Amino acid sequence: MERQRYDVVIVGGGAAGLSGALALARARRSVLVIDAGEPRNAPASHVHNYLGRESTPPGELLAIGRNEAAGYGAEIVSGRVASAERLPGAEDAGFRVVTEDGRSVEARRLLVTTGLVDELPPVPGLAERWGREVLHCPYCHGHEVADRPIGVLATGPLAVHQALMWRQWSDDVTLFLHTGPEPSAEEYEELAARDVAVVDGEVAGLEIADDRFTGVRLTSGRVVPREALVVQARFTARSAVLESLGLTPVAQEMAGTVVGTYIPSDPTGATEVPGVWAAGNVTRLTEQVVGAAAAGLMAAGALNGDLITEDTRLAVAARRA
Ligand SMILES: Cc1cc2nc3c(=O)[nH]c(=O)nc-3n(C[C@H](O)[C@H](O)[C@H](O)COP(=O)(O)OP(=O)(O)OC[C@H]3O[C@@H](n4cnc5c(N)ncnc54)[C@H](O)[C@@H]3O)c2cc1C
């Protein structure tokens, strides 16, 4: 780290963080990005639905972003932030950020873009195939498995909705009831009308051949051939740094069921702690890469505006003195 104090320290260097860094560096702010280097989509081979860069490998997209932000003077370092705290004293005292390896730096404002963790259902083998053939997001992967045999693993009430959704990409969709609730009569009718097969019984694991997922194995021993398996991951905000500042994650509900946690923020990303902004998946669980980048830009604009207000207040006080 080249300085002891920055206008803004950004915790997390994914799409949200780097986009914020680019805008703030272009606004002539001193910016430090501290990034642990584990973006959520790292297991995926390509980023889809990112206009202008469709189908770019995730690492390549971030490398482009790092170069762009660094080109305007943003500093980007590897590291994991352990905690942050407000410095004692005046309202404009700022914050201290401490990394896990004991480095410490000060910032006038913080932008936290630490993303979320996908917690997978406890079925053996899912983690190894995550982002390859074990999927959650039809907009990220649907086109790549179009017309293939797709399974949907039910672990909650959203599974029927998922099965009907993935039916848009393939006419060979099987819903595995596994530990999910029994569909209602109306849902069974919808599934039948869209030719979605329903398989009762718990799933024991995945069949793999030549490093490819080939089917779903039930506890009965029956194997149903499939080429992709859709799961409902739990989206847990990586909120430790924001929690260290006094913020509390809240449950995100979808169709009456809890699908994860997030740190609340206003439309600009401002959190309940003055001077602390959040952007990307840590505060909006459904945000895609282009949305996370847009949120980083939005937060950067609001944050720079806040700094301009403070700069002006300090200048007026100095002029009067
Ligand atoms: C398998 C998979 C495939 C996907 N495919 C697509 C796709 O094709 N298109 C699409 O638009 N979206 C896709 N997504 C969603 C996409 O991953 C997210 O929208 C995006 O990553 C959100 O960006 P972010 O900046 O909020 O978080 P992330 O990209 O997760 O970045 C957060 C960064 O913060 C770092 N970090 C976390 N904690 C700390 C800490 N304490 N200190 C320092 N750094 C920290 C992390 O290491 C990481 O580098 C996919 C998701 C998954 C799981």
TrEMBL record:
Domain spans labelled FAD/NAD(P)-binding: 6-296
Endpoints of the signal sequence: none
UniProt KW keywords: Flavoprotein, Oxidoreductase
Keyword Flavoprotein in annotation: yes
GO molecular function: thioredoxin-disulfide reductase (NADPH) activity
Reactions the enzyme catalyzes: [thioredoxin]-dithiol + NADP(+) = [thioredoxin]-disulfide + NADPH + H(+)
Keyword presence, Flavoprotein: yes
Protein name according to UniProt: NAD(P)/FAD-dependent oxidoreductase
